[in-house]
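Morning, I've got a small favour to ask if you have a moment. I'm working through a protein record and want to make sense of it properly. The fold is given in discrete form, as structure tokens running alongside the sequence. Can you walk me through what the tokens say about the fold? Thanks so much in advance, here it is:
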Amino acid sequence: MAGRYATALFELARDEKSVDAVKADLDAFDTLLSESADLNRLVRSPVFGADEQRRALSAVLDKAGIKGLAANFLLLVASNRRLFAAHDMIRGFRALVAKHKGEVTAEVVVAEKMSDPHLQALKDALKSVTGGKAVDLNIKVDPAIIGGLTVKLGSRMVDSSLRTKLNSVKNAMKEAR
């Protein structure tokens, strides 16, 4: 279901030549979702009716400056009682945009927000791994990994998080007994 919504939105955005603007707005909304427990509860909870979700979402979108096709799409999704799948729809849209542009998307988990020079260095390193393809980073901040980062690029995954390293040491200590 999320794929159908993402495909429909992508085709509309492509026809209106606003793919980048829609992607930027959806990325902003996705960031809001990940940062706000209340918004996440509104989106995921079946307790709220379609009208309640739509009114609350409209206020959030206005405040965040998300307008146009992306805002209309999210409001339509709320009206259709599919807002719980918004994150999957956004991920599907990103994948379609990346395929359209010949980009590769990397899922990155970090312990804290990365600085611009570090982001650029990571993009450059991943670009060299992908044979020169542009790399779009989908960054998620998760303090539970303590330090380092995990990168998933296609079927490859690199986990250099401090949590994983500490777990390896803990397991080695258990085996040494």
